[in-house]
Structures are given as structure tokens and as C-alpha cells.
From TrEMBL:
InterPro entries for the chain: ABATE, ABATE_dom_sf, Znf_CGNR
Record-given protein name: Zinc finger CGNR domain-containing protein
Pfam families documented for this protein: ABATE, zf-CGNR
All copies of domain Zinc finger CGNR, residue ranges: 130-172
Amino acid sequence: MGFTFVSGDPALDFAGTVRHRRDDRTDQLATPADLARWTVEAGLLTTAPPADAAGLDTAVALREAIYRLAAGAGGRHDRDLVNRHAAAAPVTVGLTADGTVERTGDLPAALATLARSAVELLGGPDARDVKECEADPCTRLYLDTSRRRTRRWCDMRECGNRAKAAAFRARHRPDP
């Protein structure tokens, strides 16, 4: 299963690694290798960091705290956890000899970068634009940057398309 990056913010994409939270829950970070691969695919690190079960547990705890805070259900414990991670050294960014960006660091640095992203988002003016996808059973959070702030789905290609197709079928269903 591939990762999806449609939330508009790395912290929200990280929270979105759990699909269908209310029913048929699927955790895309099932193993330490999944977590390491996600850090590269998300663009946090150039090379996958070493990850073990303890690192995965730490990352999942951070992910869930970010989700609860972004969904408006977080408390002091969640805020303290995010702040602790945000206080750590983040990923280091450098320019290579061939002119590309290299992002280096270990797993704690990647988690610090995600926590800082969450702090900036949830503590800033864009916090009011965090929404949950309206498509059932999707529970992905996303940043609504549409002009009128009327976006309804996390991703038009998947959730939006399914919702529109279902509405079309309902409108064109023959009456009994």
C-alpha cells in the first residue's frame, strides 16, 4: 500500500497514515521499515533512518497526539508530547555538490521536524482551515487552502471522485 500526501502539511500527512480511523482502521506504519520508508517518501529525509520497535512506538504516539490536537480533541498531554518533540534538533538541510538538497538526520530529527510542523500549523492562523474529509469512511485531516475554504474532500482523485460518483448513481437510480 502506497502512502498518500494530499493533506497540505507534513504533520497532517503523518496523521493520515491511519486510514479509516472509525471503522476498518488500517495503520500504514505497521513496521519500523514502513516508518523509515515514510520519512523518505514524505521528503523529510534523503536516506531512510534506522528504525526499531521503540522508535515506531514513539512515532505512533506523536502521530496520534498530532491527530487529536488537529481534530480538536487533544489535551495537555498531547500538547506536551508535541512540544517535547518539537524542542529536539530537527532534520539538517544542505546543498550537495550537484546542486540538490540533502536532508540528513535520524528518526528523532524527523519526528522533531514533524512536531515543529504541527506546532506551526496548529498554533498559527491556518489552524482554522484544518478539516476532516467528508467522504465516508475517510478520516484524513487536510488543510483547506481553496479560495472560499469550501473544499470537502482530502483528495479529489480518490474521495471526491467516489463521493461524486455515488451521488450521480443515486440521482440516476430508477425509482422502484
